[in-house]
Amino acid sequence: MSFQKKGVSYIVMESLEKTVIDYIDNQTANYAILINGKWGSGKTFFWNKRLSRVIESKGKNAIYISLYGIKSIEELQRNLFLSTNPVLKKKESAIDLSTQLAKIALNTASFFGNALDKYEISIEPFLNIKDNFVLCFDDLERTSLNLSELFGFINILVEHESIKTIFIAAENELDQNEEYHKIKEKLIGKTISFIADSDTIVHQLIAPYRMIDDNYFKFLDQNLRFINEVFNKMEDRNLRTLNHAIADYFLIYKKLRDMGQAYLDYWAKRMLHFILALMSVVRAGKVKKDEALKIDSGSYFLAGFENEAPEKPFIMRFVNTYYKGLTENFTWSPTITEYIYTGYLDNERFLEETKLTDEGELTPVKKLTTKFEELSQEEFSSCTQTVLREIKEGIYDINSIPRIYSFFELFSQERLIDMRIPTLKRIFIQGIDNSIRVTEPKIEFEIHYHKRSASSQTYTQILDYAEKTYKEYKEKQIKSIVHEHLKRASYDPEGLFLLIRQKNNPKYGLDYSPIFKHVSAAQFVQLVTTLSQENLIALRSSILERYNFSNIKDYFAEDLPVLIKVSTKLFKKINGKKMTIRNYTIKKLIEVIENVESRLTK
Question: Which SUPFAM superfamilies match (predicted)?
């Protein structure tokens, strides 16, 4: 799949291979192409693991050269010379390359010009280099070479020698380089923005551990989806950072394994979560070393919701970013923090941090909701205070708050706590409001988990308020998603079509929710008039698929007013006009929409 924006092609990984092969097979394409993506997005990894192999499967030699650290065009020539001749590379130290490179003439007769008489090594194979080689120059944004000289040199290879050439770069790093933008178009004919398929790349990233430690590989493979979830929360989604975290976690995993299965069962995923999240903020410079090393395992709760500072402490921001709805699994490890920064793992301190108690490390809320009668009075009081503070902070998923309230209502009625029902109600209502702001609710508010029939009036009020608050949150979320896809539809119509087709998409919280109610009819009709013929047909198919079941009125009745306006405005666009192929396609689209309208009014 691909789409266009401001003259740049955006292509997912599956399509990138074909695009590159099409370029290589195109004999008339006398230009280079650029694969553009942010630093750490996986471009080089993708070249090494997939793209170079695809090129070589076509009978070509894929030559990779990083421009980082190359100080002159002569050095670049030297690297090219050696990379295209493995025999010479082995004798590199014995050959006076500086003398020989002075003889090289890049012209239409040959790429490498003269033979090396001293060693009588034939370079006849290089006479057809343009047919056999594909060149890849990486780290364009990091080169210290004069760009005009660099592009001039490579232009000889591309334009005059017809050598297929690929650049890899983080072009955003070149935004302020006026020279680059002036000369780019003379050499680079196509820019492709790299969009990594994180599932595929992460799977390839962990693959080497199969040979190193099969148990560790299996653990990572079993948690692949979880790793991706944490990775997608990272601000820059940097694969180098992810790779670094997985490599560093290997030692932690082995320590836990040596400590016993119980430690693996309890800590392995928690520690993986922590090291992935911590590595992300450390590598992105989101926390200072001194600040991170001062944080202890209880700092999150000590930070407190009562902190009135405009800027919340780092630890709160960290939890809100990487542990939304998962605060019960959060733990801050000072030992691992020190290990990340220094490479030193304090074994004694690590053993103390990960020590399992008889209670199985139950959190305060779990203790209260599963075994409060077994707690000492002191521990019970401590747990209730902690949970009430956490309720105020809004760190619990909105779905769990009514259930927690039911226990506190019992504690109040039985006088186990000195707090009346009205006070509890205010605290839990506040917790519901803050939960929406602080944590991300589950996709669906699981109303069936709560029993209304045997509940008190206050419990029912809290449950109703939680349900109402979640629905309002969900409505805003869906509206935002719809507007974002409409805004991008001019260059990514497939994204909008996918949103329309997937009426039950957990990723967007679309559990058969009406989406056209959030659409401006005029804006949608304007979009239709700009769509290509192919995309018009795709839009019609998407609407057909969305409403392809019997009881659509039960779910999509609120879409009706906008659909009526859309079909009316589209009819006015073609009414009285000559029946062209395009107008015929719009007519068929109107018929599909009117059919939906008819079914929604029955």
Answer: P-loop containing nucleoside triphosphate hydrolases (SSF52540)
Contact 336, 248 (CB under 8 A): no
Is the predicted pLDDT of residue 302 greater than 70, yes or no?
A: no
Greatest C-alpha distance within the chain: 100
For residue 291, the surrounding DSSP H or E stretch is helix 289-294
pLDDT, tens digit, 9 for 90 and up, residues 391-449 = 998 888 887 888 899 899 999 999 999 999 999 999 999 999 988 876 555 434 343 33
Q: Which residues of 240-268 are buried (b: 16+ CB within 10 A; e: fewer)?
A: ebbbbbbebbeebbebbbebeeebbeebb
DSSP bridge pairs for 3: 10
Per DSSP bridges, beta strands 188-195 and 8-12 are: parallel
Rounded Cα gap, residues 545 and 501, in angstroms? 6
| pLDDT > 80? residue 225 | yes
Q: Decide if 80 contacts 65 (C-beta within 8 A).
A: yes
From residue 254, alpha-carbon distances to 19, 273, 329 in Å are 43, 16, 21
DSSP string, 336-396: HHHHHHHS---HHHHHHHTPPPTT-S--HHHHHHHHGGGS-HHHHHHHHHHHHHHHHHT-S
Tokens of 445: 């508010």
Q: What is the 3-state secondary structure (H, E, C) of 305-343?
A: CCCCCCCCCHHHHHHHHHCCCCHHHCCCCHHHHHHHHHC
Q: Considering the domain 2-196, what is its CATH architecture? A: 3-Layer(aba) Sandwich (3.40)
Under 8 Å between Cβ of 555 and 522: no
H/E segment holding residue 11: strand 8-12
Domain extents in the chain: 2-196, 201-353, 364-472, 489-601
In this prediction, residue 594 carries a pLDDT of 93
Given the DSSP bridges, would you call strands 188-195 and 164-169 parallel, antiparallel or unpaired?
unpaired
| Cβ contacts of 545-550, under 8 Å, gap ≥ 24 | 545/500, 545/501, 546/500, 546/501, 546/503, 547/596, 547/599
Three-state secondary structure string covering 544-557: HHHCCCCCCHHHHH
Q: Of the candidates 195, 286, 232, 279, which has an alpha carbon nearest to the alpha carbon of residue 440?
A: 232
Model pTM above 0.90:
no
- pLDDT digits 0-9 by tens, 31-61: 999 988 877 777 888 888 788 888 888 888 8
Mind listing the pLDDT tens digit for each residue in 89-122?
Answer: 555 544 444 444 434 433 323 333 333 343 333 3
**pLDDT value for 471:** 84
Task: Supply the mean pLDDT for the chain.
Answer: 79
User: Which range is least confidently modeled, 168-172, 174-178, 388-392?
Assistant: 174-178
Angstrom distance (rounded) from CA 295 to CA 289:
10
